[in-house]
Design brief:
single chain, 284 residues, alpha+beta, TATA-Binding Protein, Endonuclease III, domain 1, 2 domains, 5-stranded antiparallel sheet, two-stranded antiparallel ribbon, 45% helix, DNA-binding
Amino acid sequence: MIMEITIKDDFDLAKIADSGQCFRFNEVPEPCDKAEGAAHKCYSVAALNRHVYIKELGQNRYEFDCSKEEFDSFWKRYFDLDLSYKKIRERIDEEEDPYLYRAAEYGKGIRILRQDPWEMLISFIISQRKNIPAIKASIEKLCALAGNVIADDPETGRIYSFPTPDKLAALSMEQLSGCSLGYRDKYVHQAALDVVSGAVDLSALEKVGDDKLMEELLKLFGVGVKVANCEILFGYHRLDAFPKDVWINRVLEEQYPQGFLFDKYAPYNGVMQQYLFFYSRSMG
DNA sequence: AGGCAGGTTCTTA
DNA sequence: TAAGAACCTGCC
């Protein structure tokens, strides 16, 4: 089934795929377009137990390889299409904050996806002191080992769901090590056990306040302030969370010695963080 | 070959 | 309470 749609607001699949917030979102060599010489870019997006191919048609037109029902009930929300990122971007004053203005122009099209808290928790625990290709490789190994097949195309290969907490908790330390997790294997294992046992209730945390959410996440073994903020921003979609990694710290140091305008951009500081991260990382 | 990559925990003063 | 070392692994 194919579903075609026009998206007028900021929406750039290449930038989202490369923004560092998702690890199972990749450009693929035209699996959804068998036509010879077609110039349309295609993307494969896996989210928890769903998967879709998206083709860029140009002119703000996109083809989703799913039914309208699937799009309306899942992908529309996943891409946060009810929120205008253009309007958020327009909060930035070029004269007052030229660096962020440039970063936002450069990163125009990035959105904060509504991803699953469990998948994000494990993904960002794995992310510590790893580069993005290594993070992706570990996650794919985990999915192949403990996920289910959710798409199986003879040409494009198999896509696996992200492992459920109990499937992940059931893996041995040897199996986890086989996913190149390094010293993070025990963090992943413990997080899975905590979620399975109910010691941590990720869905109940949807309802608690920001401070309480941070406090609870920090109790998890292997979760510090940076990973917790990624979970709050990407897993719980609280758009004011502002994860500080090495890149962001460098930007704050070099470009904002007098301080970043957190008050001005609330409650969307996390969106600004994404522009800054994407910009600084691609500038080198 | 040795350093480093989207940090966190553990140890020490 | 705060700085420094240690930590897996893979890739330059």
